[in-house]
Design goal:
Layout: E1 14-16, E2 19-21, H1 23-54, H2 67-77, H3 82-112, H4 118-130, H5 133-144, H6 149-156, H7 173-183, H8 188-197, H9 202-210, H10 215-226, H11 228-240, H12 249-252, H13 262-270, H14 282-308
Antiparallel strand pairs: 1-2
Helix pairs in contact: 1-14, 2-14, 3-8, 3-13, 11-14
Length: 315
């Protein structure tokens, strides 16, 4: 008969909710989670709380005031003002991003269908994501110069470019940068959509072909519902970055010729452009950021709720 001294002791456990775990396991989990939690508290929570409080303070006297919000309203409502132009251009880039999202879906679908030369097109579309942005913008600027290839072609057609170039005029600068963004916009999203297409059961598509389903109907009625979680996620991410929609303004025009955006305006206020420092208007920047958050968060929640109304297809 086993004595009390040699009877195996029941190991002590800690109950957390409905789970029971050993103490060493609890210590391991706490130690593992402590570093990211500390990082989040220092680099996100503290920074954002400090920024929110800064928007209600006078930058010189540090007294509580609403002057920063009044200045934001004046800058936005001023007709022809830099920030008003920034909001206009940001809206244009956001709309372009929405159009590119749909076009990337279509391009990825045709690459998935293995059209003639699809392997070469896949590399061509992804090249802008591989090549340095500085190199791409330099090549693009050289191409569109009045003395460059585009200027030579337009001169041969009887429509020579202005001597200041497409980037040297307020009438054409923003449109030119948007054209560049359109040219380089077929990269990462195409690969992500193509990867999501590879999960679609081939039996479903073969059955559609037997029934005489055309490519457009196949994309709209079969492929899109099957990859809706991926598409809705990318759509939601586009709305979360709505006010950060921008082109490579710093590399092209440094915000001149009415090309600034909200994101670039915030950059110049904090860091400046070129070799110059920022304006030091941190309270103004914080106030604008808080206003943008108040607008973007409810809009993103609404889009998220609308996306959730679309039933998910299990396969």
């Amino acid at each position: 008969m086993m004595t009390e001294a040699f009877r195996p002791q029941k190991k002590r456990r800690i109950r957390i909710g409905s789970l029971e775990m050993r103490p060493n396991r609890v210590v391991f989990i706490i130690a593992t989670l402590s570093l990211p939690l500390i990082s989040w508290a220092v680099f996100w929570l503290y920074v954002n709380l400090d920024g929110i409080l800064l928007s209600f303070k006078n930058p010189r006297t540090m007294e509580w005031t609403m002057d920063n919000f009044k200045q934001v309203y004046e800058l936005i409502s001023a007709p022809g003002g830099e920030l008003a132009i920034g909001f206009r251009n940001t809206a244009l880039y956001f709309v372009e991003g929405m159009v590119l999202l749909v076009l990337n879906l279509v391009v990825a679908f045709f690459l998935y269908k293995k059209v003639m030369g699809y392997k070469a097109f896949r590399i061509i579309f992804y090249l802008p994501a591989i090549i340095s942005g500085v190199a791409l913008t330099t090549v693009f600027q050289e191409f569109i110069k009045p003395q460059g290839p585009l200027g030579t072609i337009m001169k041969m057609l009887g429509h020579p470019l202005d001597e200041v170039g497409l980037l040297g005029s307020a009438k054409t600068a923003t449109g030119t940068i948007m054209a560049y963004c359109f040219w380089t916009g077929f990269s990462g999203q195409v690969l992500m959509f193509t990867a999501s297409f590879s999960r679609i059961p081939i039996d479903v598509l073969e059955a559609a072909h037997i029934d005489g389903c055309k490519p457009f109907r196949e994309l709209v009625s079969l492929v899109l519902p099957l990859i809706m979680p991926m598409f809705s996620t990318m759509l939601l991410l586009s709305f979360t970055g709505m006010f950060s929609s921008s082109g490579p303004i710093l590399l092209f025009t440094q915000g001149n010729f009415e090309t600034t955006t909200v994101a670039y305006w915030l950059f110049t206020q904090v860091y400046g452009s070129g070799g110059y420092g920022g304006t030091g208007s941190y309270g103004l920047v914080s106030a604008l950021g808080l206003c943008l958050t108040v607008v973007a968060v409810p809009l993103t929640i609404i889009v998220h709720k609308l996306v959730d109304l679309i039933p998910a297809v299990e396969y």
